[in-house]
Amino acid sequence: MTETFHLFPILPQEIRLQIWSIILHEPRNTPIRRKTNWKCGSDKDLLYFQPRTPPPVLTQVCSESRAEALQVYTRAFTYGLEPRYTYINFALDRLIISDWDLFVHVPFSAYERGCIRKIAFTADNCDVFHGYFFRSNSAGTLKALEELKAVSRDWNRCSTASAESIVRGQFDELRGHVDGSVYPEISCMGEQDGLHFGVDIIDEDDIF
Questions:
Q1: pLDDT at residue number 79
Q2: How much is the pLDDT for 12?
Q3: Fewer CB in a 10 Å sphere around the end CB: N or C, the chain?
Q4: Using an 8 Å Cβ cutoff, are 122 and 98 in contact?
């Protein structure tokens, strides 16, 4: 049973704001999935992105907490025929996507690409490291990227160390061998290790 602190509203405002700030500085995993329209021709037209988790709690507590939250969270990924939005704090939150294909082929804005610092993408196997996923220049546009986690059910075709080496090579190529370039922390892991970070495999059935 959740207890209510009835005296909270009469605390001095500076104390309330400090409490909101502490909560707002907790990083979140932010998984998104795409909704497509199978009836529009041969291509799956994008309807919208939607978060797979509830919105940040402080956007719903009261007007004061919401005002503080909206200074930190951005309404992002508003694309498609029926656009929706996802709250994300680009400085702290980890964006979770189904695979690199989602990021390559959906035109996230230049602003969003320049703000994203943490990405985890999930895949059924490690083919993503040998196919077309890294042949575009998408990785090179992630100027602020600090962390990249790849979570896969199947590493039979390559070890995680080999996969990490491949990804680093791709970043080296796509960023043009810039001297002093800062590369993201790259880690490849299995499904169980991914769960340790709160990264669950997003099945293709979850993408409509």
A1: 82
A2: 92
A3: N
A4: yes
pTM over the 0.85 mark: no
Nearest to 126 by CA among 102, 152, 107: 152
Which pLDDT belongs to residue 128?
Answer: 61
**Contact criterion met (CB below 8 Å) for 67 and 101:** no
| The pair of three-digit structure tokens given for residue 71, joined into one six-digit string | 């200074």
Q: Which whole-number Å values give the CA distances from 159 to 64, 65, 163, 179, in the listed order?
A: 49, 46, 6, 28
Tens-digit pLDDT profile for residues 160-205: 677 677 667 766 665 655 444 567 787 877 777 777 767 766 555 4
pLDDT in tens, 21-31: 999 999 999 98
**CA–CA distance, 44 with 64 (Å, rounded to integer):** 41
Distance CA 101, CA 98 (A): 8
Which letter, b or e, does each residue of 114-133 get, where b requires 16 or more Cβ atoms within 10 Å of its Cβ? ebbbbbbbbbeebebbeeeb
